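Good morning C.,

I know you're traveling, so I'll keep this short. The sequence:
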Amino acid sequence: MATTILFDPQQLPIDAIAGEAAVAPERLRPDWLRRRFADPPPWVPEAADESRQRGPRTTRASVLVPLVLREEGVTMLLTLRTAHLSKHGGQVSFPGGRAEPDDASAIDTALRESEEEVGLARRHVEVLGTLPDYHTITGFCVTPVVALVTPPFDLRADPNEVAEIFEVPLAFLMDGLNHQRLSSVLPEGRRSFYAMPYDRFYIWGATAGMLRNLFHFLRA
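The tokens, ready to paste straight into the viewer:
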């Protein structure tokens, strides 16, 4: 989720590297992940600057945080949104979108949107649970729905919304040494955010913010 921005985040200087120790490898395995979501410990989500700067009106939305069970290790499935979109155009995002009246729950929204955007059939998805809602500066209240995804599966990108589907090793995303902190001055004030560049993909903003909360949850 994102919107038209007034700056290019890739041109900003890096303020700091978060630098926390990586999540232990055994915590990135399917059985451990299932146990963690079934019996979560006390933990404190990280408050994002954009959530403090959001407007009074919010639109409910959900994203799927898909953990793909590859033989070489768990990966995170992400999308690159098409450049022409008015919201989040050209940015890396989880599959997902706004809630519809017929959706039974936030989980249902995430599953439906993932089917529509990337063709991920529900039979491959094992929902583990949800992370705290993430409020974007553009007025969305986003519920991240974390799930295990079992291959083999066929994906089909909706060309109107998704330019590319790709995967990133979960171990890379769950290492604080790969979490950059940047900031920019906007009309509403200074905004700090995270970025997690990987290969030719620039993961930042709300997507990186939700990944930070998954990181804190798994480290707790």
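Safe travels,
E.
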